[in-house]
Amino acid sequence: MNMAATECLLQMYEEHHELEDYQSGVPRWCTGCGDSAILAAVQRLCRDEGLRPEQTVFVSGIGCSSRFPHYMKTYGFHGIHGRALPIAEGVRMARSDLHVFVNTGDGDCCSIGAAHWIHAIRYNMNITMFLHDNQIYGLTKKQASPTSPRGTKSNTTPRGSYLEALNPLSVTLGVQNVSFVAQAVDWIPESLYEIVKAAHRHKGLSFVRIVQRCPEFMPNIWDPWLHDPQKVQMLHHERGLQISPGLAKVYKNQLHHDPLDINRAREIASNLDIIPVGILYQNPDIPCYEDLRHSGKLRTTEFFRKGLETEFDKFTVWPEDEAQQAA
Ligand SMILES: Cc1ncc(C[n+]2csc(CCOP(=O)(O)OP(=O)(O)O)c2C)c(N)n1
Ligand code: SF4
Ligand SMILES: [Mg+2]
User: pTM of the full predicted structure?
Assistant: First the structure.
């Protein structure tokens, strides 16, 4: 075999990945936890899109859902509660060649990390963000979160929570520079996969709220939607996602929705009786912050070394300066 053919084969081997190339460890999530479905969809995405594990990084905060990077055989950063987004933004600024993902819980994102969430939308960096919304603090064993429905009994709200839940879709759709908003549910794996794929392919901050079941602390809350497919509305459009014939048979509540129409997206998001599934909004023309800042130039180690040396040189006292001062 000649050299060119050998190199070609080696390259094919390096670029071909199986699911196990992305799987790491045994997830510690409870049986029936929706996080497992999200993990399966994302590992499949990485394999199908051929994402090189060494060029892929998952960043998370703290929570059950934030254990996600441990189960991906890629780079990962299990961060600080509420701070997944700024960490991911730092990674993205320094290494625009990486695929950057964020896994965050409803407490992590919508409570302690809410300020970072708002600004991440506005900065619109090329990051794919999954909000695992189980409407409760899971890891710390059942405290109400901003997305808990009013009346939720928890350790912090024993008489039931007093406030209406925050709507993560409406909040995101209200922020300047929003470029991608979608919603998925953990119990429809086919559309979950299509949505995470569309989110990854979008250039900009892709916000995907995933309705995630927590059978441990919020059992049965999604039963009305699980048992009545009419309460799940499948969004479809030539510019968005298509509904497969199999899904169309079960989910007959379908809406032809143009993802460029932000006002309609806001209306859809505000109807809480049904769960819209699909892309609510997508605008590919919003510029990414990292492009505005350094026009796609890769920040290499050499780049940083030169920059640091230039800065240090400003404080160097050269021998001739000392001699001049002494004279
Ligand atoms: C600064 C800080 N405050 C509080 C905590 C405790 N804490 C850990 S996870 C968590 C909430 C997790 O809820 P969520 O983000 O919804 O994730 P889930 O466990 O539901 O996936 C809290 C309050 C912490 N680790 N750090
Ligand atoms: S407590 Fe809830 S969110 Fe956490 S692992 Fe168990 S089912 Fe999942
Ligand atoms: Mg939660």
Answer: 0.91
